[in-house]
Amino acid sequence: MNKREAKELVEIFFEEIRGALEGGQQVKLSGFGNFDLRDKNQRPGRNPKTGQEIPITARRVVTFRPGQKLKARVDAFKGEAQ
């Protein structure tokens, strides 16, 4: 598979995930993790420059929870990247 084909495959893969999330579905990738939507309520925030309190609007965010196999692989490489 060349670079262009790999890029196209990855784009199709993420488009499928986007479509499922837009449809309100949870996306479970066995051995990797879960993508899900979460609603966040409006909350107070601050402008870092002025310190003025401003409202942070309610919104919907995508969350990712890694699976046990992914966590184990990442934990196996702790400290080796330095």
Walkthrough of the structure:
This protein is α+β, with helices and mostly antiparallel strands. It has two helices and five strands; from the N terminus they run H-E-E-E-E-E-H. The chain has a single domain, classed as IHF-like DNA-binding proteins (HU Protein, Chain A), CATH 4.10.520.10. 35% of the residues lie in helices and 33% in strands. The strands form two sheets. The chain has a three-stranded antiparallel beta sheet with strand order 1-2-5. Strands 3-4 form a two-stranded antiparallel sheet. A hairpin with a 6-residue loop joins strand 3 and strand 4.
Discrete helix count? 2
Identify low-pLDDT runs. Answer: none
Mean pLDDT: 92
* Main sheet record: 3 strands, antiparallel
Radius of gyration: 18 Å
Helicity, in percent? 25-40%
Q: What is the CATH C-level name?
A: Few Secondary Structures
CATH superfamily: IHF-like DNA-binding proteins
Please give the number of β-strands. Answer: 5
